[in-house]
Design a protein that fits this description.
By secondary structure, this protein is of the alpha/beta class. It contains 23 helices and 21 strands. A hairpin with a 5-residue loop joins strand 13 and strand 14. It binds ligand C2E and magnesium ion (MG) (2 copies). Ligand C2E binds next to strand 14, helix 13, helix 14 and strand 18.
Length: 570
């Protein structure tokens, strides 16, 4: 192995140069502003000049015998280097741009030229590389790699890099620094409703507004589709980050004029502080993200500082998520049935299938806790299909008893967008041998109004099968009456929140009365959800509501209990 610090002269001497040439090479090598390095035929570093050390910051004695960093940069993949070596071997040289990380952690961009040197027998004896630091001349490809083309802000890659750099800086100087992660609330909705141009304008304006809220030394990044990040360096107190967050929320909540429309976009922000909330970039990012999720749960236009309890929640959720993946296979899911009762006669005319998860350690978990996880992970598609098949199969037994019986099954938004939903419903019916008119599919009001034209199409396809459709939780979303009129629906289910205070609350009583009247004018059956007290039943009866569902008659119950109820009240 050649010793470190060897000059070009000795390498030149070895390749047959005379002493005068060798001395000249030596001067040139040591004084060149270009970085020069020499490797053996296997690409292992033999020596490099002072400019090489200056630009890369590497410790030459440690680097000799290894691939020089420029030939093993993390920013280029294996294929890139395979192509480089192939060209070098075939043509004797290679030129191009390389990104690499200096020993300080900073990213630099270099123009590299590398050529092979052969002996008289034609064998490669050395490779000689030269490069210059071109970091200041931002090339298009560099810019594309590290900067967002829309907002011109540095992107997630640079965020990671800068964050690490700033953490090290803060650690060395015993300083506090903050990371803010920002999510534009309802960006997707704005994109879908007003189009991509409006979405882009929103992001651009948000970027501009963020820049006005921070000091010159602070850096704003576009870290994802609708996500931004800010590094606040050298803050005196965590409250300083909160002040910036408040300023951002205020600035970004100003309406935005796009295509003659006033758009209100709000932001939620999660904050992590170095060193209290993390001692490395991974933890700082994770914790700011946990805080951002918490802020989103708190509502629109909020910010949250990271708290360790957030990780406990996230961990709990992760555990539930992995358990849920196995729940179907382990037969831990089951359907409970809640009777739906005809108010006039007190007869049970159907039941709503409501999903339950019997967790082996945590006991019975209600759907409100695990359905959001199932939706986020996509598991809802298989779970939803299972509920549908199970409900059809179980209800078919009760239907065969003679009395009419409709089973209702809830559909989630993801299922409703599933292309093969119609064929899943069709095969569930045919496997159970169930007439389609005895199955009612429930979609929520907010789900149906999200993209009403799509809803209309899907509902028409489902309706062609002959199934019934119900709008669930009616009154909690914003319905367009013109769509409600066009949707081929059969039933409106009045949300429990309107029933709670009737007949005592005049306002709620009037709302319920109006919903019943409107539903009847559209020829829809009305089911009141969450009926718990007798006076509610009287009010509903007086106002012509046909059916009810609620704890007063029965909570959702397992199959054997439901069968007892059905045998008495059918
Ligand atoms: P939902 O479809 O509106 O179901 C009615 C909810 O109200 C049920 O809660 C039921 O137990 C509850 N409830 C019924 N009567 C009363 C009452 O008198 N008082 C009170 N306080 N509550 C009453 P559950 O079973 O916890 O289900 C909650 C939600 O989870 C359902 O609301 C539905 O949106 C969703 N869900 C349940 N099963 C499924 C399913 O199989 N698929 C999908 N996608 N969602 C489901
Ligand atoms: Mg329902
Ligand atoms: Mg409901």
């Amino acid at each position: 192995m050649d010793s470190p610090g060897k000059t070009l002269a000795s390498a030149a001497a070895r390749s047959g140069a005379n002493p005068a040439e060798s001395a000249f090479f030596d001067v040139f090598f040591n004084n060149s502003t270009e970085a020069i390095f020499i490797t053996d035929p296997k690409g292992r570093l033999i020596t490099a000049n002072p400019s090489f050390i200056g630009i890369t910051g590497v410790d030459l004695s440690a680097a000799v015998g290894l691939a020089p960093p420029i030939l093993a940069s993390e920013f280029h993949d294996r294929e890139f280097y395979i192509a480089l070596w192939r060209t070098l071997k075939r043509k004797g040289g290679w030129k191009g741009e390389i990104l690499q990380r200096r020993a300080s952690g900073e990213i630099c961009r270099e123009w590299l030229s590398i050529s092979s040197h052969k002996n008289s027998g034609g064998e490669v004896t050395h490779y000689v590389g030269t490069f210059t630091d071109a970091s200041n001349q931002m090339s298009q490809s560099f810019s594309k790699h590290y900067y967002d083309s829309l907002t011109k802000l540095p992107n997630r890659l640079l965020l990671q890099d800068r964050l690490e750099f700033m953490i090290n800086h803060a650690r060395r100087n015993n300083e506090l620094m903050a990371l803010l992660l920002l999510d534009v609330d309802r960006f997707k909705m704005i994109n879908d409703t007003f189009g991509y141009e409006a979405g882009d304008a929103l992001l651009q304006t948000t970027a501009d507004r963020l820049l006005t809220c921070v000091r010159d030394v602070d850096v704003v990044f576009r870290s994802g589709d609708d996500e931004f990040a800010i590094i606040l360096e050298e803050i005196a107190h965590p409250e300083d980050a909160a002040k910036v967050a408040r300023r951002i929320l205020k600035t970004c909540s100003e309406p935005l004029q796009i295509d003659n429309c006033e758009i209100y976009a709000t932001i939620c922000i999660g904050i992590s502080i170095f060193p209290t909330d993390g001692d490395g970039k991974v933890q700082m990012l994770q914790n700011a993200e946990a805080a951002m999720h918490r802020a989103r749960e708190m509502g629109l236009n909020c910010f949250e500082h990271y708290k360790p309890s957030m990780n406990a929640r996230a961990l709990e959720r992760l555990t539930l998520e992995s358990d849920l993946r196995n729940a179907l296979g382990r037969c831990e899911l089951c359907a409970f049935y809640q009777p739906q009762v005809e108010i006039k006669t007190g007869r049970v005319t159907g039941a709503e299938a409501l999903l339950r998860w019997k967790h082996p350690e945590l006991g019975m978990i209600p759907p409100t806790q695990f359905i959001p996880i199932a939706e986020d992970t996509g598991l809802i598609l298989s779970i939803g299909e299972w509920v549908l098949r199970t409900a059809c199969f179980e209800a078919r037994k009760w239907q065969k008893g003679g009395a009419p019986f409709v089973v209702s099954v809830n559909l989630s938004a993801n299922q409703f967008q599933q292309e093969n939903l119609v064929s899943i419903v069709e095969s569930s019916l045919s496997n159970a041998g169930m007439p389609p008119e005895l199955l009612e599919l429930e979609i929520t009001e907010s789900m149906s109004m999200k993209s009403p034209e799509e809803t209309l199409k899907m509902l028409r396809n489902l309706k062609e099968l002959g199934v019934r459709i119900a709008i669930d939780d009616f009154g909690t979303g914003y319905s367009s009456l013109s769509y409600l009129k066009r949707f081929p629906i059969d039933t409106l289910k009045i949300d429990r929140s309107f029933l709670m205070d009737i007949p005592d609350s005049t306002r709620d009583s009037e709302i319920v009365k109006a919903i019943i009247a409107m539903a009847h004018s559209l020829n829809l059956t009305v089911i009141a959800e969450g009926v718990e007290m007798e006076p509610q039943v009287q009010y509903l009866l007086q106002n012509g509501c046909e059916k009810m569902q609620g704890y007063l008659f029965s909570p959702p119950v397992p199959v054997p209990e439901f069968e007892k109820i059905w045998s008495i009240y059918k």
